[in-house]
Amino acid sequence: MKRVAVMLRILAVPALLVAAAPASSTALTPPDPAAPRDKVVVQGALGKRIDDYLTRLEGYGFSGALIVAEKGKIVLEKGYGFADREKKIRTTPDTVFDIGSITKQFTATAILKLEEQGRLKVTDPIEKYFPGVPPDKRAITLHHLLTHTAGLASDFGGDYDPMPRDEIVRQALMRPLAYPVGEGFHYSNAGYSLLAAIIELVSERGYESTLRRSLFLPAGMLQTGYLLPEWRRDDIAQGYVDGEKRPATLDEPWAPDGPWWNLRGNGGIHSTVGDMYRWHLALEGDRILGAQEKEKLLKPYVQEGGGSHASYAYGWGIVTTQRKTRLATHNGGNGIFEADFRRYLDEDIVIFIASNAEVSGTAVGGRVARLVFGVDVTPPPKVAPLDAKALERYAGTYRTREGSTFEIRRRGDSLELVAPGQAALDALTCADDAARKVSEALNRRTGAVLQAAAKGDYAPIQKALDLPPEEVRQRTGEFWSSSREKLGSFKKLEVLGTRPGNRESMETGVRLDFELGSSYLVYSWTGEKLEDVRPSEHPPRVILFPVSAAEFTPFDVESDPEFRVSFQLGAAGAVSSMEIGGKSCLVHARRGGA
Fold first, then answer.
1. From CA 91, how far away is CA 74, in angstroms rounded?
2. Which of 202, 190, 106, 109 is nearest to 153 (CA)?
3. Which CATH topology does 433-534 take?
4. Cα-atom radius of gyration of the chain, to the nearest Å?
5. Residue 212: pLDDT above 50?
6. What per-residue confidence (pLDDT) applies to 594?
7. Among 189, 224, 340, 585, which one is least packed by beta carbons within 10 Å?
8. SS3 track for 358-399
9. What is the average per-residue pLDDT within 281-291?
10. How far, in Å, are 14, 61, 62, 121, 347 from residue 353 at the CA level?
11. Angle at Cα 173 formed by Cα 172 and Cα 175, nearest 5°?
12. What pLDDT is stored for residue 73 in this prediction?
């Protein structure tokens, strides 16, 4: 599933929006909160086991909040790391996070609430709500939008591009379909924005106001929304990428009443772990939907694409676990904020996690689920705190006898190992002849795909991605036009090398040189299929964390480290060399030369 999340912008709440929900309405009175409890909960052996694991992850940059409940009892509710590093504000269970595409389940539930009230039907064609629907889109119903089977493109621009409601409707009706209506699954953020527009048209009030009135307040969710909750600035998590602070979601350009329509209804809502647990409880009961509509919400309608084991319901992915039980799940993110929501329906277990930094909240959520179900998860070694002076002593160039070069740089409280070129990457990963052939082939293919795209030929990348031509043409064209607008004319590209990625993937790094600067891309391959293309701000590198004064380890939350780096001292006490110890080889590199 694609993740989308918004940047936080604290604005005064318009009086008209507040007045739209009259205080005299008993339907808007939130239920009494659960019995008072400590802000932080670590309960029993399971709670302690998860807490110990996440506390260990803090040393590797994990920052976020988590709630885990089993059979109606909270076993862990706690924050880790910093919500704001500069202000030294710790993350707590009350920290507000952007939860990205988890927003979609609120949109879907609001549609079903309106159906329950007799104000629409999910079988309604969209031409009932939008005038001038062209012939190729007249078969689209609300059900198609809810299940990503309408054939609409995913997006019509960036999250923060000024896009009024009427314009996103116009774009959706004007653009060609990726495939005929109902003939496949194609994740579409735009489809959920159309649903949000329909919610406004039918309810005759704003999207967020409708959700607050019909969903959030009845569920007791006082800290969930776009603008209506009265958050303090320090309540909201800031975002971090590569150690650098990024704009929080509400700091990005928004319309006066919330995000623009490339985001509204499909992403960007903010919440806390406690509110999301209240949402689960409300869905379990009858405060939000009756039995018939709840069944529609979680019914698996269509198999998701891309080799996923999930089927899509209305704003939820439905998975059959290895234990033959049902998991309702969705996640969200934008490369800065991530959230992961798992409801094990037959086992009465709930996990919700949100993060605001480099370590993936979705990946951590998967590890927490393993702990909940008794699967061993190897904790990483404890990080040894080293000051800047101790880290700086290791910075420099190191060369192997065969001529491979590595650069070591200090990066905050850690080190950065840069392996420029395929030979260095092969040495780093102990590549054999077969692995080197795979890397060389992917380097050639990536270069050919990019060279073609730079000339406006998108057929090779479309074939590799196996996505609809219109979507590939739109996204790739936008990338090149935006890059040229910012960096001038394109000069050349350099394939920097291929290395193993997560699970079975291989990642190929590329530098694109323009007239005014350079940019980096990472191509993620699984066999012959191109799974993903994402921007990067640096060449291929590995972040190393100190586990002793002279020994460092990389970290990947989804796998055990494949090597460690040890530094050796010369006779005068200066760093003379380093050893990279892998599972099947040992690489020795001298500082400054072979």
1. 18
2. 190
3. Nuclear Transport Factor 2; Chain: A, (3.10.450)
4. 25
5. yes
6. 52
7. 585
8. CCCHHHHHHHHHHHHCCCCCCCCCCCCCCCHHHHHCCCEEEE
9. 96
10. 31, 15, 12, 33, 19
11. 65
12. 96
**Which 3 state secondary structure label does DSSP give 574?**
coil
β-strand partners of 255: 258
The pTM for the full model equals: 0.86
Ramachandran quadrant class, 243 (left: phi over 0; alpha: psi -120 to 50; beta: rest): left
Spelled out in words, what is the top-level CATH class assigned to the domain 15-100+208-362?
Answer: alpha beta
CB 94 within 8 A of CB 104: no
Over residues 505-533, mean pLDDT = 91
How far CA 175 is from CA of 134, 413, 429, 470, 532, in Å, comes to 10, 48, 45, 9, 23
CB atoms within 10 A of CB 359: 20
Assess contact for 246 and 57: CB atoms under 8 A: no
- Say which residues have a Cβ less than 8 Å from residue 483's Cβ, sequence separation at least 6: 490, 512, 514, 519
Alpha helices in 213-323 (DSSP H): 217-219, 273-284, 291-297
Lookup: tokens for 345: 């329906």
Model pLDDT for residues 120-179, shown as the tens digit of each residue:
999 999 999 999 999 999 999 999 999 999 999 889 888 999 999 999 999 999 999 988
> What are the two backbone dihedrals, phi and then psi, of residue 332, each rounded to the nearest 5 degrees?
-160, 155
Could you check whether 15-100+208-362 and 388-420+542-591 share the same CATH topology?
Answer: no
What's the rounded Cα separation, in Å, for the pair 303 and 474? 25
Query: What three-state secondary structure class fits 278?
Result: helix
Q: What is the CATH number of domain 388-420+542-591?
A: 2.40.128.50
Pairwise pLDDT comparison (419 vs 103), residue with the higher score: 103
3-state DSSP assignment of residue 83: strand
Provide mean pLDDT across the span 317-326.
96
Rounded to a whole number, what is the distance in angstroms from the first to the last CA of the chain?
Answer: 47
- List Cβ neighbours of 223 (8 Å cut-off, separation of 6 or more): 94, 96, 229, 231, 235, 270, 271, 272, 274, 275
Sign of CA dihedral 471, 477, 483, 485: negative
Supply φ then ψ for residue 149, to 5 degrees: -120, 15
What is the spatial distance between Cα 153 and Cα 117, in angstroms, rounded to a whole number? 31
Per-residue confidence band for 593, with pLDDT thresholds at 50, 70 and 90: low
pLDDT of residue 501: 77
CB 406 within 8 A of CB 396: no
d(CA 187, CA 149): 8
Per-residue confidence (pLDDT) for residue 38, from 0 to 100: 46
Confidence class of residue 427 from pLDDT cuts 50, 70 and 90? confident
Query: Domain locations in the chain?
Result: 15-100+208-362, 106-203, 388-420+542-591, 433-534
Is residue 305 predicted with pLDDT exceeding 70? Answer: yes
